[in-house]
Recover the amino acids of this structure.
C-alpha cells in the first residue's frame, strides 16, 4: 500500500472536482440526521447512546485492524465508513439495550464482516446488516425488546438515567423495564394474526399510529426525507430505493386486496420496520450492491420481495437485514448479466 | 430547429475559457530553429525528400510517404536544412523521433509553385482529395488522422459535420478561429460539400460560444447576399455544453441519434466529421494553394502570465510560444499539451509545436498532486458518466489483474480515454491511466501470443516435415531392401536353374 498521502499526477485528466469517499460517507451520515433527531425525540436518549457506543467502538476496532493489517491509518481511519456502519447498526437495534450489544455488533461489523474480507471495498456482505443478523441470532431477547413511544409511557428516562441503564442495567426504582417497552407493530401483527385475530381488531391497538407503527412512522418519514435528499445530491441512484419500495408496495397491496383480514395495508409495510431505512441507506451501500442500472432494479425488487416474505411468512418480524444479505449473494451474477450495451455495439455483452 | 439527441454519460466541467479567448489571435516571431517531426499524423511516418544543407522555400514539401494513411510535411519557413536527426517530439516520456531542422533565413520566401486557385469549385473530387493530401492536412482537433483518407468514404454520406464543439476546458483555439475566419470555414465547407455530396451540412458549436455562432451565421448571410445560394444549406447548431460532446462518436450521436458501430468508422452510418480548423486548412489548400504550415493554438492555464491564442508555425519550439505568452509564473510548473481532460504532460518545453498541438496548458505541479487512491467502493459513478457506456470499474479490476480476455469482454478497446471516470471517482483511482497501460499491455500480450502461436505452428510443421522425411526414407529403405531381396532370390533361382541346366 502506498504510504504517502499524495502522488504527482502521472497522466490526464488533470481535473479534480469530485467528492472523496470520506465526503460521500459524511453526506450519507448527514442525511440520517433528521430521522435520528425524530427518533431521539420520540423514543428517548437510548438511541443516541447506542450510536455513540457503536461509533466509538467501531472506530477503535477499525484503528486496531488497520494497524494489524499494516494499512495507512491516516487514509482509512477518517474515511467515515466505520462511523456510518456503526450508526446504521445502532439504528437497527432497540434503543434500550446493554452497552455490550452495540460493542459486540461493531466488532462483528468492522473486524469480521469488513476487515477479514479485505477492508473497505472488498467486503462481500453489508457489515452493519451482517452484524445485526449475528446479534439477532445470538441475543434474541435483547434484540426484541423495543421501546414504546415516550408519549405512551408514564415516565421516561433522563439522559443520565439512560446512560446508567446502558452501562449498569439499573433503572430508577419507580420504573420497570416492561413499562418502557412494547411490541413493535410488525411483531404485534404477526403474533395476533397468528392467533387468529383479524386486522380490523388489531388496528385498534395503540401500537398503530396514523399510517403504521406509532412513533416509528415519523422516524421513517425522517429517513425518507434524508434518503430523497441523497438522491437529489446524486450520492445514491434512485434505482434501488424505488424498486425495493415498489416491490414491497405491490406485493403487500396484492395481499391486502385479496385478504384484508390477515394482511395489513402497504403503508404499514412501508413505514413500519426498516423498509425506508433499508431502501435508502442500507441496500444502497455501494460496496455490496449491484452496480448496473438494470442490476440495481433487480437487486431492489429482490430485497423488497424477500423483506415482505420474511415479515409475513418467515420466522422474524422484519426481514430487511436478511433480504439484503441474501440479495448480496446475487450481485456478481447480476452485474455480469446486466452489463449495459456499449456505444456502437450491436448487442449486449457476449455471455461466454 | 434541429432535433438533438443525447449521449449517455458525460460531465459538466468548469470552462476557464475566458482566460484565453478575450484577445485577438497573436503572431509569434519566427523562431531561430524550426523542428519538423516526420510523424505528425496517424499512420505511416514520412520520409525526408530534402538533404542536409538544402535551401528550402516556405511551403516546400520536405517529407512524404506513399502510404494511403499518411501526410506529407512542408517547410514552414524558408531557410536551410541544418539537421535531419532524432529530436524530442511531443510525448510524455520525451521520446526522440526523426525530425528535419530548418534554420530560417528570415525572408519567408514562398515556394514559387504555390499559386492561388480562383475557381476551386471546378476541381473534381479526386483533384480536391489530391490537393488536400498534398497540403499535409490532418485532423486538427487533436486526432491528426489524414483528412484525405477520411474524405474517401465507400458509401453515400448523409451528414457532413464540422466540429466546432471544443469541449475541453481552457482551450479556445477553435473558438478564436471561428470568430476570425468564419467565411473561410464556410467556403471550405462548401467545397467539402461538393466533394462528398451529403444531404445536409452541420457546423456544431457548444452553446458556451455564442459569439462564434453569431459570426458563423453572419458569414452565411453574407455569402448568401453575394449570391452563393449553396450557403443556405449549412446549418449552425448550438449544442449543450457537456464534456465530451466534441468527441466524434458523441457528437454524431447528439446530431443524428446514430451510433458509429463498434470497431467501425463514422462513414458507415453516413457521417463524415471534420474539425473547424481542418476545414479552414482545406480552404487554404484549395483556394490559396497553401499547405498546412501553421495552426492556431491556445496558451493558457493558471501559471502563465498572458494567456491568449497564437498563430504558430508548425515546428516552433514550445519555449518560444511560452515566452510569447509572457512566460510561466513560477518554476514548479507542469506543461500539458492539449486540455486538462485528455492532454499529455510534456517533460520540458524544448519540444516543437506539431499539427496536433491545439493547446499548451501550464498548471502548477503542486495543485496537480493527487490524494492517494482508496480502494474502489463500487459506487458505479464511473459507469454513469462513461460516454461509451462501458463499465470502468470492471475494466479497472481486470486491468489490475491483467486478465486480457476479460478486458476484451468488457470492451477495453472502446475506451476513448476521455477521463470522465477518473474525474468523478470518489476513491481517486487514476482509472484512465490504468486503461492506457492495459491497452499497451494487451497489445504486447497479443503480439506475443501471435508470435508464440506462429512459433508453435512452425515447430509443428517442422516436426511433421522431419517425420515425413523419415517415413519417406524408411519407405525407400524398405523398397530397396525388397528389391535387394528380389534380386537375391532371383539370382538364387537363376543359380538353381543354371545348376539344373548344368545338371
Amino acid at each position: 500500500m502506498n504510504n504517502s498521502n499524495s502522488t504527482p499526477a502521472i497522466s490526464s485528466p488533470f481535473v479534480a472536482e469530485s467528492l472523496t469517499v470520506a465526503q460521500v460517507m459524511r453526506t450519507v451520515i448527514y442525511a440520517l440526521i433528521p430521522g435520528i433527531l425524530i427518533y431521539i425525540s420520540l423514543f428517548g436518549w437510548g438511541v443516541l447512546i447506542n450510536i455513540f457506543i457503536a461509533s466509538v467502538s467501531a472506530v477503535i476496532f477499525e484503528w486496531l485492524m488497520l494497524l494489524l493489517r499494516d494499512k495507512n491509518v491516516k487514509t482509512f481511519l477518517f474515511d467515515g465508513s466505520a462511523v456510518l456502519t456503526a450508526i446504521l447498526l445502532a439504528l437497527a437495534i432497540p434503543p434500550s439495550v446493554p452497552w455490550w450489544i452495540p460493542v459486540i455488533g461493531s466488532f462483528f461489523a468492522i473486524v469480521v464482516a469488513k476487515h477479514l474480507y479485505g477492508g473497505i471495498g472488498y467486503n462481500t456482505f453489508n457489515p452493519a446488516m451482517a452484524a445485526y443478523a449475528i446479534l439477532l441470532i445470538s441475543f434474541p431477547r435483547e434484540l426484541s425488546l423495543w421501546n414504546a413511544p415516550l408519549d405512551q409511557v408514564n415516565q421516561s428516562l433522563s439522559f443520565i438515567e439512560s446512560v446508567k441503564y446502558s452501562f449498569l442495567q439499573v433503572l430508577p426504582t419507580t420504573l420497570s423495564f416492561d413499562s418502557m417497552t412494547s411490541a413493535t407493530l410488525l411483531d404485534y401483527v404477526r403474533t395476533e394474526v397468528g392467533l387468529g385475530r383479524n386486522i380490523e381488531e388489531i388496528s385498534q391497538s395503540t401500537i398503530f399510529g396514523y399510517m403504521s407503527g406509532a412513533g416509528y412512522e415519523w422516524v421513517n418519514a425522517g429517513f425518507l426525507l434524508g434518503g430523497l435528499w441523497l438522491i437529489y445530491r446524486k450520492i445514491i441512484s434512485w434505482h434501488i430505493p424505488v424498486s425495493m419500495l415498489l416491490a414491497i408496495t405491490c406485493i403487500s397491496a396484492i395481499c391486502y386486496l385479496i385478504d384484508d383480514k390477515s394482511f395489513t395495508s402497504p403503508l404499514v409495510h412501508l413505514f413500519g420496520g426498516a423498509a425506508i431505512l433499508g431502501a435508502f441507506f442500507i441496500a444502497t451501500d455501494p460496496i455490496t450492491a449491484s452496480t448496473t442500472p438494470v442490476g440495481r432494479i433487480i437487486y431492489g425488487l429482490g430485497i423488497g420481495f424477500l423483506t415482505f416474505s420474511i415479515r409475513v411468512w418467515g420466522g422474524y418480524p422484519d426481514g430487511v437485514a436478511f433480504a439484503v444479505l441474501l440479495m448480496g449473494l446475487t450481485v456478481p451474477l447480476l452485474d455480469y448479466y446486466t452489463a449495459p450495451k456499449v456505444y456502437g455495439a450491436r448487442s449486449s455483452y457476449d455471455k461466454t | 430547429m434541429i432535433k438533438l439527441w443525447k449521449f449517455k454519460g458525460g460531465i459538466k466541467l468548469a470552462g476557464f475559457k475566458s482566460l484565453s479567448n478575450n484577445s485577438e489571435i497573436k503572431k509569434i516571431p519566427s523562431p531561430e530553429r524550426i523542428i519538423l517531426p516526420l510523424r505528425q499524423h496517424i499512420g505511416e511516418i514520412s520520409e525526408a525528400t530534402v538533404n542536409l544543407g538544402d535551401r528550402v522555400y516556405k511551403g516546400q514539401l520536405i517529407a512524404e510517404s506513399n502510404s494511403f494513411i499518411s501526410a506529407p510535411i512542408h517547410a514552414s519557413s524558408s531557410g536551410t536544412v541544418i539537421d535531419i536527426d532524432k529530436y524530442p517530439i511531443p510525448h510524455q516520456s520525451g521520446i526522440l523521433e526523426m525530425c528535419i531542422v530548418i534554420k530560417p533565413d528570415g525572408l519567408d520566401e514562398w515556394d514559387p509553385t504555390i499559386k492561388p486557385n480562383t475557381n476551386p469549385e471546378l476541381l473534381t473530387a479526386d483533384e480536391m482529395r489530391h490537393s488536400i493530401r498534398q497540403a499535409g492536412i490532418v485532423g486538427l482537433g487533436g486526432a491528426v488522422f489524414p483528412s484525405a483518407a477520411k474524405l474517401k468514404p465507400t458509401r453515400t454520406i448523409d451528414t457532413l459535420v464540422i466540429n466546432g464543439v471544443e469541449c475541453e476546458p481552457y482551450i479556445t483555439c477553435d473558438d478564436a478561429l471561428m470568430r476570425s475566419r468564419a467565411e473561410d470555414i464556410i467556403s471550405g465547407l462548401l467545397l467539402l460539400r461538393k466533394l462528398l455530396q451529403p444531404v445536409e451540412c452541420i457546423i456544431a458549436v457548444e452553446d458556451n460560444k455564442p459569439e462564434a455562432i453569431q459570426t458563423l451565421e453572419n458569414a452565411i448571410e453574407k455569402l448568401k447576399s453575394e449570391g452563393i445560394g449553396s450557403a443556405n444549406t449549412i446549418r449552425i447548431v448550438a449544442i449543450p455544453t457537456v464534456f465530451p460532446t466534441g468527441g466524434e462518436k458523441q457528437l454524431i450521436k447528439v446530431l443524428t441519434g446514430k451510433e458509429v458501430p463498434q470497431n467501425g468508422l463514422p462513414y458507415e452510418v453516413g457521417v463524415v466529421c471534420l474539425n473547424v480548423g481542418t476545414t479552414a486548412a482545406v480552404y487554404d489548400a484549395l483556394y490559396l494553394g497553401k499547405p498546412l504550415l501553421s495552426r492556431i493554438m491556445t496558451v493558457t492555464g493558471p501559471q502563465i502570465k498572458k494567456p491568449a491564442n497564437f498563430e504558430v508555425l508548425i515546428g516552433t519550439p514550445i519555449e518560444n510560444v511560452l515566452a510569447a505568452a509572457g512566460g510561466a509564473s513560477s518554476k514548479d510548473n507542469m506543461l500539458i499539451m492539449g486540455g486538462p481532460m485528455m492532454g499529455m504532460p510534456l517533460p520540458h518545453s524544448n519540444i516543437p509545436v506539431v499539427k496536433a498541438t491545439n493547446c499548451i496548458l501550464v498548471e502548477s505541479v503542486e495543485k496537480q498532486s493527487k490524494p492517494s487512491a482508496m480502494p474502489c467502493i463500487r459506487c458505479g459513478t464511473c459507469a454513469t458518466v462513461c460516454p461509451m457506456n462501458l463499465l470502468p470499474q470492471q475494466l479497472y479490476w481486470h486491468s489490475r489483474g491483467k486478465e486480457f480476455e476479460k478486458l476484451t469482454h468488457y470492451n477495453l478497446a472502446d475506451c476513448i480515454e476521455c477521463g470522465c471516470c477518473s474525474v468523478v471517482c470518489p476513491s481517486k483511482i487514476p482509472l484512465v491511466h490504468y486503461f492506457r497501460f492495459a491497452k499497451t499491455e494487451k497489445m504486447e500480450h497479443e503480439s506475443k501470443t501471435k508470435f508464440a502461436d506462429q512459433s508453435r505452428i512452425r515447430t509443428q510443421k517442422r516436426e511433421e516435415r522431419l517425420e515425413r522425411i523419415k517415413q519417406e526414407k524408411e519407405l525407400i529403405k524398405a523398397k530397396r531392401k525388397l528389391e535387394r531381396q528380389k534380386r537375391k532370390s532371383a539370382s538364387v533361382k537363376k543359380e538353381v536353374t543354371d545348376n539344373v541346366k548344368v545338371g
About this structure: Chain B touches chain A through 65 residues (CB under 8 Å). Chain B has a mean pLDDT of 91. The CA atoms of residues 26 and 474 of chain B lie 85 Å apart. Chain B is about 35% helix and 15% strand.
